[in-house]
Amino acid sequence: MNNHIVIMAGGIGSRFWPLSTPEYPKQFIDILGCGRTLIQLTVDRFKGLCPMENFWVVTNAAYVDIVRKQLPEMPENHILAEPAARNTAPCIAWACWRIKGEDPGANVVVTPADAVVMNPEEFRRVIGNALAFTEKSDAIVTIGIKPSRPETGYGYVEVDTLNVDTLIRSGNDLSTYQPINEIRRVAAFKEKPDLETAEKYLKAGNYLWNAGIFVWNVKTITEAIKTYKPNIASDMERMRTAADVQEVFPQCEKISIDYAVMEPAAADGRVYTHPADFGWSDLGNWASLHDKLQKDSANNGAVGKVDLYECKNCVVHAEEASKVVLQGLDGYIVSAKGDRLLVCKRSEEQRIKEFSQK
Amino acid sequence: MNNHIVIMAGGIGSRFWPLSTPEYPKQFIDILGCGRTLIQLTVDRFKGLCPMENFWVVTNAAYVDIVRKQLPEMPENHILAEPAARNTAPCIAWACWRIKGEDPGANVVVTPADAVVMNPEEFRRVIGNALAFTEKSDAIVTIGIKPSRPETGYGYVEVDTLNVDTLIRSGNDLSTYQPINEIRRVAAFKEKPDLETAEKYLKAGNYLWNAGIFVWNVKTITEAIKTYKPNIASDMERMRTAADVQEVFPQCEKISIDYAVMEPAAADGRVYTHPADFGWSDLGNWASLHDKLQKDSANNGAVGKVDLYECKNCVVHAEEASKVVLQGLDGYIVSAKGDRLLVCKRSEEQRIKEFSQK
After folding, report:
1. H or E element: which one contains A2?
2. CA nearest A327 in B: which residue?
3. Which of B328, B334, B356 sits opposite A345 (nearest CB)?
C-alpha cells in the first residue's frame, strides 16, 4: 500500500475554552462524548485505506506526548514535532518531504485532526476515489463539501461549470455519479463570503465548502511546492537532521497551503475537487458542536453526567465532572474542564477567546 | 480559666451542594472566601474568652480527620466522635459530662460550627457577659439575636415583657445597657413562624432569633438534663469507655436540646437570654450567603477567581477553580467544587437537596 495519511494537529482551539486549552486543545478531546477524541476519530475513519505504519501526525512539540498516548499504534518517528507554528504550507511540505524519503511512490491524503464526519463509510468511498485518481495522475485534489446552508465561516471551492452540468441537472444527488467521474476541475478558490454571496453560492450549485482535506501523490505536491513556493522547497531540502529542523523550520515562510499552492495551481488549471456529502463539520464553534450532538426534547445537547431541569437550547460539555446540575437555563453554553468553568449565552460565543485571555 | 467552648460540628449542609457535601460539609469550607473555614472562624471568635485546651468539638466520626487538620491546636481527646447522629441533646450532654469529669467548676458555651458573626468583638462582649452571669448562677442562657427582618426560617425566643420595658423604650439600642442587666428572662420558645406571625414578632420588639448558642455552668446543665431527660443523663453515666460510647450513644434518644431541656426549663422560668446584635447568620441557605458576601455594583457576590460579564444578582462559589467565566446570568447560584457543578436560579434553591440526591 502506497497510501499515506498526514494529520495536521497543531491547532489550539481557543473558541472552545475551557474545554479546549493551549495545553490540551480540541483535537485531543472527546468533544462528542463518544469515547474517542477527535484525532482518534480522524485515524479511525481512514482505517482500511491505509496501514497504521503509513500515518503521520504533524503537531506542536508540546503535544507529542499527547499524540503518543492517544495513538499508541502510530510509528513514533511519524510524529513530526514543529518547533514553531508556521501555518499549513510548511507543515504539509515537511510531512510530504519525509514521506517522499520513505516512499517516493506515495499517494497522500492530508487532513485536519479536529473535524468530524458523520458518515465514515461515504468518507472512505470519496477518499478512495480521490486516491485512485491521484495514483495515476498529477492532479491536486481538494475535497469539496456540498453546502447545506449559506455558511459564511468557510472558504468555498468554485467548480468549473463546464464539468458540473450533470451535477446541477441531477439536483446535486451525488450518489448517481460514478467514481472518478465525480471529480471536477476547480475554477477558483473563494474567501469566506458575506451572507449575500454565500446565498448566491448555495443557489448556484457549483460552489463547495473547502474542508482542508487534500489528496495528491507525493511527487506532484513536492514539485508543486518547488514551482509555487521554491523558498519552502529549498528549506525542506535543508532539513536533514533534527538539528536542521530546529534551525530551519521556524524560519520557513508562514503561509497557508491555500495561498502557497492551491490558489496559484488552480489558476493554472491543475486543481480538482471531489464533491462530497459525508456529514462533515469542522466543529469550529459551539453552534456546530450543538448541531452535531444528540439533542433531548428541549434541544439541549450535553456531554457528561449532566442533569437538566427546565433548560432548553443549551450546549453542555463537562466530560470529567462526576455530577453537573443545571436549572433554568435557555440558550447557554456550559463548559467545565479541570478547574475551569464557562457559562455564557450562545449568542455571545464569539467573545469566548477574549474571556479566556483576560 | 474555667471557661469551655463546645462546638457542634456534625451537620451535613445539604442545601449548599456541591460546595457542601456529606463527605466534606459546610462547616469545614471557607464559604466566605476569607481564608478561614466556618469552624476555624468559630474558634477564632472565642479567642480571649477561653484557652485552646478548653475547646471541644463534637462531630461525626467521619469528620474527625478534617477537624484535626483544620484545628491542629485542639487537644485530640477533646474531639468527640459521635458513632451516630442523635440530634443536639445527646451531643451536648456527652460534651458536658466529659467537661464535668475534667473540670467540675466549668462554665460552658455551646455553639454551632457553621454560623457566622460579622462583629466578633461585640460577640465576645456578649458571651463574656453571659459567662459572668452563669459563673455565679444556675441560669440556663440562650443568646437571642435581635431580628432585622420577619424571618420565617428561625425559631424565636419570647422575652418576658416585664423585663424588657427599657429595651422597648430605648428603641432597641442595646449599646445603652449595662452588662448583666442586659440579660432577660425567657417567657417561651416559639417554633418557626409563618410570615404574618414573624411580622408581629418583629413589631412587638420582645422576640429574638434563637441562634442555638447556649451558656451555662456544667453543674447546671448536667442537673437540668437529669431533671428533664433522666434517660439521657443515665446513658451519659454509662459512657465510661470508648466501647461504652459505641454501644450506648447510638441508642440515646434522638432529640434536640430545645425540646429536651430549653422548653421545659423555660416553662419552669429557669431560662434567660442575652439579646445580641453582632451580625449573626446561620448561613442556612444561598440567600443568607449572598447577604453576607461583599457585592459588586451589580449585586453579585462571588468567592473564587470569577470573571463576570453582564451578570447581576448572582451568588457564586468556586474557591478551587483556577478560572470561572460567567456571562449573561441574572439571579443565579453557581457553585463548583471538585468535579461537581450547580447552576440554578436563586428562586429555586429549595430544590438543591433534591437535585443533589437524584
Report:
1. none
2. B344
3. B328
Q: E strands of chain A, at which residues?
A: 3-9, 55-60, 79-82, 107-112, 116-117, 140-145, 156-159, 184-190, 207-217, 271-276, 280-281, 301-304, 306-309, 315-318, 323-327, 332-337, 340-345
- Cβ separation B321–A341 shorter than 8 A: yes
Half-sphere exposure in the Cβ direction for B126 (13 Å, CA) = 28
* pLDDT of B180 higher than 70: no
| Interchain proximity B342–A325, CB inside 8 Å | yes
Residue A351: how many CB atoms within 10 A of its CB? 15
Cβ-Cβ contacts under 8 Å for B163 (sequence gap 6 or more): B184, B185
Cβ proximity of A336 and A352 under 8 Å = no
Strand partners, B127: none
**Amino acid type, A297:** S
Specify burial of residue B123 (Cβ count, 10 A radius: 0-12, 13-18, 19+): buried
What is the torsional sign of CA A259, A264, A267, A272? negative
Determine which helix (DSSP H) or strand (DSSP E) holds B329, and give its type and residue range.
none
Give me the DSSP letters along B33-76.
Answer: SSSS-HHHHHHHHHBTTB-GGGEEEEEEGGGHHHHHHH-TTS-G
Beta bridge partners of A334: A316, A343
* B312–chain A nearest CA distance, Å: 14
Residues in B closer than 8 angstroms to A348, CB to CB, are 327-328
Are the C-beta atoms of residues A115 and A281 closer than 8 Å to each other? yes
Q: Are the Cβ atoms of B341 and A332 closer than 8 angstroms? A: no
B322-326 mean pLDDT: 96
To the nearest whole angstrom, how far is the Cα of A324 from the nearest Cα of chain B? Answer: 5
Helix/strand/coil percent split, chain B, to 5 = 40, 25, 35
Q: What are phi and psi of B310, to 5 degrees?
A: 50, 40
| Residue B323 at interface with chain A, using a CB cutoff of 8 Å | yes
Contact B326 A343 (CB under 8 A): yes
pLDDT tens, residue by residue, B280-309: 999 989 999 999 999 999 999 999 999 999
Give the strand pairing for B271-276 and B140-145.
parallel
Task: In whole angstroms, give the CA distance from residue A124 to residue A121.
Answer: 5
Whole-angstrom Cα distance, residue A207 to residue A152? Answer: 13
Q: Is A342 in Cβ contact with B321 (below 8 Å)?
A: no
Measured between CA atoms, how close is B343 to chain A, in angstroms? 5
A218, three cell numbers: 507525493
- Place B1 in a pLDDT band, splitting at 50, 70 and 90: confident
Residues of chain B neighbouring A311 (CB-CB closer than 8 A): none
Which grid cell is B250?
Answer: 447510638
Determine the residue of chain A that is closest to B323 in CA distance.
Answer: A340
Q: What is the ipTM of this complex?
A: 0.85
Supply φ then ψ for residue A235, to 5 degrees: -60, -45
* Best residue of B315, B327, B345 to probe chain A, by most A CBs closer than 10 Å: B327
Check whether B167 has a pLDDT greater than 50.
Answer: no
Going by pLDDT thresholds of 50, 70 and 90, the confidence category of residue A162 is low
Mean pLDDT, residues A165-172 taken together: 43
**Greatest mean pLDDT range, A158-162, A177-181, B53-57:** B53-57
B324 pLDDT more than 60: yes
- Is the CB of A267 inside 8 Å of chain B's CB atoms? no
3-class DSSP assignment, residue B105: coil
Interface of A with B in 339-358 (CB under 8 A): 339-345, 348, 351-352, 355-356, 358
